[in-house]
Amino acid sequence: MSEKSKESSPSPAPAAPPPLAIELPKAPEGQMTLRVNGKDHFIDPKKYRSLIEALRGLGYDIPHFCYHPGLEPDGNCRMCYVNVIDVRTGKPVMAPNLSKQPFKMYPKPVISCREPLNPRGMVVETETEAVVEARKWVMEFMLINHPLDCPVCDKAGECMLQDQSYKHGKADSRFEERKNEIPPKELGPTIRLWTDRCITCTRCVRFLDEVTDTNELYVVHRGDRSEIEAAPGHPVDNPLMGNIVDICPVGALIDKDLMYTYRSWYLRRVDSVCPACSKGCNIQVQMQKEFVRRLVPRENRDVNGWWMCDRGRKDFGYINAESRIRTGRIDGKDVPVIQAAEEAGKRLRAAADQDAQRVAILASAWLTLEELFVVKRLAAALGTTQVGLLAEADGEEQVFPKFKIEADRNPNRAGARLVLGDDVESKTEGILAAADEGKLEAVYVISSMPHYEAPAGMLDALGKAKLLIVQDFRSGPLFDKAQIVLPGATFAEKDGVFVNVQGRAQVVRRAIDPLAQGHDDLLVLGRVANAAGVELATDSARVVFCELAKEVSALEGLNHKALGKVGLAIGRSSD
């Protein structure tokens, strides 16, 4: 055959690919098929960084230690094993067994925290005999040097190592040698490392590298001698350092302020919102009887992720402080709360009947939307437009790579503007000037701010009013000047809604009963308003919110249930 005829002859058709051993159903556009233990799921592969996130998102229990959704995957603990099945062969992904000569292939479980999703589809098994056995080996290895000091460990009852050992470990150990014992270390002013408990998951190291970028911790030595160490001359001392105690999966990192104070199983838990700044970090309030013991962050990826600052974490001592006001007072005499509230309403009504514009109300940016709404109704019933706003002084704004601490130290400044108007704060100066000139007959101050200190000029001005009513949860200079004192409540003693700096409405939930004879701010405000002529049921924050939603368009159609655990953006910020 000539060269020309060879060139013109058609090339052979490519061989057809071999048929797949496993045919997966076609997923909708933009999704992939993930078959888990024989059950097909359609998921968006762009939503998850790795296989473990997809499995956990579908509700599968994948044990892990080093993995954390807020940190980059590291893959060092090897606990999140699963089998990935090759759809072409129908068999698990294979790897060579280097201990055999000649080499033999064997099914190799993969660590799901580092396994990317294949948009073409995947088949995964999470509970095969090989996977279960591999997890037992990992647990046995991790417990080789770990001390058996659960009875004295502060993490007992909420320790991932305890839980995973029970679910996936072995009842006995083959390790007979002496454990590698390392004494505890002081990593910073409030954090102690029990080094012998550490499993070197590096969560703490990665947090300080990725979230705060302060890089105080690193790993020294190798193998079973590896341990966490603080950089020389750089102890762990930053505004977010308490988070490394939260994310430690074992009892290695302990907050020294809480060491040996309580057992986790004695604590009740309520989801709420941190009031320390306008960020509105989602938190869990943990309490024992009527005492708040701990505030820890809870996940809300739209607000705080998984973190909170140490200022918000530690700032709750005022809740059970000795300075708490627990009863009412009229003209220097202690009286029941209801009696004081009703007397306050009657005196405000009498002053307003003389001249409504000589009556003023100063609310605070720590009150909930529901309480601010009662203030608005009270002002309307009295006929006064003299309504101002008090707020805690701004602090320092601090920005980290994956977290921001707001300068505004008030949890509901945006909510106050939403309910009382954008100009409510600017009216405060005029109200104080009028009081200083003796033009006000009565002033009703509702504070409930834990660190607010009234300036001397404000104290002098309010002291010139014939009637000063102060509602607060702690005594102070304003308390001493008031003719009528009403007890207030902290954020942990009330239900209600805060609006954060992003314009997100979030529900604050009562964790402990109000210490003022069972009365929170809303109930006391309601008693005052009812006595002054306001017709509004204030026994429930949920009911008041529904009334508020009828008047504020940004809240239309919403209620506490609709806001849920993570809140909703209502389309209006404090800017």
Describe, in plain words, how this protein is organized in 3D.
- Helix 13 links the parallel strand 23 (467-472) and strand 24 (484-487).
- The chain is elongated and about 105 Å long.
- The longest helix has 18 residues, at 337-354.
- With 575 residues, it is α+β, with helices and mostly antiparallel strands.
- The chain is 25% helix and 20% strand.
- The protein has three domains: 32-142, Ubiquitin-like (UB roll) (Roll), CATH 3.10.20; 150-155 and 171-319, Alpha-Beta Plaits (2-Layer Sandwich), CATH 3.30.70.20; 324-491 and 519-540, 3-Layer(aba) Sandwich (Rossmann fold).
- It starts with a helix and ends in a 6-residue tail after the last strand.
- The strands form eight sheets. Strands 17-16-24-23-22-18-19 form a seven-stranded mixed β-sheet, sandwiched between helices. A five-stranded mixed β-sheet has the order 2-1-7-3-6, with helices on both faces.
Strand order of the largest sheet: 17-16-24-23-22-18-19
Radius of gyration over all CA atoms, rounded = 31 Å
* SS content category: alpha+beta
Instruction: Let me know the number of strands.
Output: 27
CATH topology (fold) name of the largest domain:
Rossmann fold
Indicate the CATH class of the largest domain.
Alpha Beta
Q: How big a fraction of the residues is strand? A: 15-25%
Molecular shape? elongated
> What is the level-2 CATH architecture name of the largest domain?
3-Layer(aba) Sandwich
Distance between the termini: 84 Å
User: What count of helical segments does DSSP give?
Assistant: 16
Average pLDDT, all residues: 91
Domain count, please report it: 3
- The helical percent reads 25-40%
Low-confidence stretches: none
**How is the biggest beta sheet arranged?**
7 strands, mixed
